[in-house]
Amino acid sequence: MWADEAALDATQRRLDEWESAAADRARRAQSLAARVAALTGTAHSPDRTVEVTVDSAGLLVDLRLHDRVRQHSAAHTARLILTTTRAAHADLLRRVTATTRETVGADDPTGQAVVDSYRRRLGDGRRHPDADR
């Protein structure tokens, strides 16, 4: 009977540990979601005439144009805005990656899924082949 009780106690301890670990993962995932939701990404054009800020979903929330943009064609300014928006997306991706590592660790599967999702949606900040269309 002692062996059965010892096995039962060991099983109960494993279940308690599993439950505790699951609760901890859930808390960290909730913390990550809250922290990521508060992030933004910001970038400036090389000539500092355009500043773009995107929210945690990658949507444009602020666009600032310096008066010097008037010296350029509308097409040039549009290209600067698009390029700077991609740079803001890259900044957001860097922030999401750093926040994920700080919150759940670099090897956490949930964290990796979050970063991968952002990478797929936002790209890596490089120029897209159809950007001039």
Brief description of this entry?
This protein has 133 residues and is mainly α. The protein has helices at 2-37, 74-104, 109-122; strands at residues 41-44, 50-54, 60-65.
Describe the model.
With 133 residues, the protein is mainly alpha-helical. Helices cover 61% and strands 11% of the residues. It has three helices and three strands. It has a three-stranded antiparallel beta sheet. The termini are far apart.
Question: What are the main properties of this structure?
Answer:
133 residues; mainly alpha; Ybab, Chain: A; 3 helices; 3 strands; 61% helix; disordered C terminus
CATH domain class: Alpha Beta
Roughly how many Å is the radius of gyration? Answer: 23 Å
Q: How is the largest sheet built, in terms of strand order?
A: 1-2-3
Secondary-structure element pattern, one letter each: HEEEHH
Number of helices: 3
Give the proportion of residues in helices.
Answer: 55-70%
Taken as a percent bin, the fraction of beta residues is: 5-15%
Major β-sheet annotation: 3 strands, antiparallel
If you average the pLDDT, what whole number results? Answer: 89
CATH level 4 superfamily: Nucleoid-associated protein YbaB-like domain
Ends distance: 77 Å
Low-confidence stretches: 127-133
The CATH topology comes to Ybab, Chain: A
Q: What is the second-level CATH architecture?
A: 2-Layer Sandwich
